[in-house]
Amino acid sequence: MSIARHTLARVSRSTPTRLSTTTSCARAFSTTPTSAMRSYWYDNSTLDQRLPHDSGRPVDSGTLTRLGIHLHHLPSLSDVDALAKERNYKNRDEVTISPAAMGEAYEGKVKNFFHEHLHEDEEIRYIRDGAGYFDVRSREDEWVRIRLEKDDLM
Questions:
Q1: How many helices and strands, by DSSP H and E, does the chain display?
Q2: CB burial class (10 A; 0-12, 13-18, 19+) of residue 133?
Q3: H helix runs in 2-145, sequence order
Q4: Does residue 93 register a pLDDT over 70?
Q5: For 13, left (φ over 0), alpha (ψ -120 to 50), or beta?
Q6: Most buried in the list 42, 63, 75, 137, measured by CB within 10 Å?
């Protein structure tokens, strides 16, 4: 179980964020992050949540593992399918988050992602295009921000 909030940031105005989500029961799996993935302590600024909010304090993989966060870089959808089969995931959906795809609902939806919420079941987030920030509350009541880009999975 983790407490989370999400902020989706697009790499460019022409690149919407496409997000694939899958849920299952909790089980541990290995961590294989890439150099493009970044995790750091959130700076707690009240500026726009779509900004990096990098405190300059990196978060190591051991801290992420203790929080139940595991990172992968999976360059093909067949890799995601294999992981989903191995983990016995039951549900899957895909959303495209961009002003073009969502119209007037875009700004409100992006703000809504930032509201704190609880994930009771294991879930993955796979970025098919674009980029996004995912925030997880630590046991010490601080926020860890994780930036994912295309083909990254959390």
A1: 4, 11
A2: buried
A3: 61-66, 77-87, 99-102, 106-113
A4: yes
A5: alpha
A6: 42
CATH of domain 2-153: 2.60.120.10
pLDDT in tens, 38-70: 999 999 999 988 899 999 999 999 999 999 898
- Residue 73 and residue 37 in contact, taking contact as beta carbons nearer than 8 Å: yes
Question: 119, 9 in Cβ contact below 8 A?
Answer: no
Tell me the HSE value of 134 on the side-chain side, using a 13 A CA sphere: 23
Mapped onto helix, strand or coil, the DSSP state of residue 84 is: helix
Residue for token pair 């992981």: 83
Asked whether the beta carbons of 79 and 151 are under 8 A apart, the reply is no
What one-character DSSP code corresponds to residue 15? B
**Domain residue ranges of the chain, discontinuous segments joined by +:** 2-153
Token representation of residue 42: 């959130």
